[in-house]
Amino acid sequence: MSTATWNPLAEWKHTDIDWIRIDISREDLRRFTTRSDWKGLAYTLGFLLLIGATGTLAYLAFARRAWVLLALALYVHGTFYGFFGNALHELGHNTVFASKWLSVFFTSLLGWLYWPFNPHLYRLSHQKYHHRYTLHQGSDGEDVPNYVAITPRLLVNLFLNVLHWKSLAHNLYRLFTVTPASKGWRGRGPRLDTWERFVLDTASEKERAQVYRHAVACLVGHVAFAAVCIVSGYWFIPIVVTLAPFYGAAFMGYMAGIHQHAGCEANHPDFRISCGDAILDPLTSFLYWRMEYHIEHHMFAAIPCYNLPAFARFAADQLPPKEWAIPRIRKLHHLCKEKFGSHQEWRDRYGVYKGF
Known about the structure:
The protein has helices at about 10, 25-35, 35-65, 65-80, 85-90, 100-115, 120-130, 150-160, 165-175, 195-200, 205-230, 235-240, 250-255, 270-275, 280-285, 295-300, 310-315, 325-340, 345-355. By secondary structure, the protein is mostly helical. It has one domain.
């Protein structure tokens, strides 16, 4: 059983990788990588309107003392709110808008609304390391070939574990100590782990300043926001904004996101081997910002999310066939057991890179 964890502060190494991608002309690639302010606004505002609608429904149910409706509305609102991390992921790639000011504005706004996820810290890890060294051990400290094991306990947690008190405590500590937060992709405790510290240590002064400016803005903004709401008698509003990242179910996010790298190959130069796709229903795909096209996204991260479906159709003959999410999860359950052995064996092999 492995007892040591990988320490990137001392052991990180650069890896030269000759990435394998599909054959595509420059003209075709330019067509798919073209960004649009109008498409970006339609997508982003549509996402915010959907989240706003569930929050408004919860507020109206509270105001009318419709307690059953309130519980259902908060369940849906919290579940949908968890997809803010995917929105910030896409905004972090600077592909949503053609205009830089729109990208900066919406990254700041959505980053404030989903304050436990510092988009600037995430960008430093995600672009500099995860995309550059995808699943190469010792270089990509963000992810590994993940393990899928469908158990009764997991299913219960995905649907019924809806109040995340421990995460709330950890992130409140980070908020009030101005510690950059990383809920959803790191964030295993109240303090920075070794990967987060490595990412900050290797960043430039300008990049670190941006990370901490956002942390300060979240602290000042949410304290002021909550204070004004409470003093005005609208104390329920912070529950559907400030506290929304800490309740809701995980089943939609799991169904959408587990395919990204589960059961994949480490240290492989072909994104068709190191990444995975799935087919999602329209609502989940929209909330997930089309990241179910994950092979395509890693091959050409400059393609905006709203162009990924068309690109996937264009390149279908050079990509693995796609499967619906739930049947594919069942296949991953069996594949991971065959490929990695038990979950403990997987932890012994890859857990050191996940900080276990």
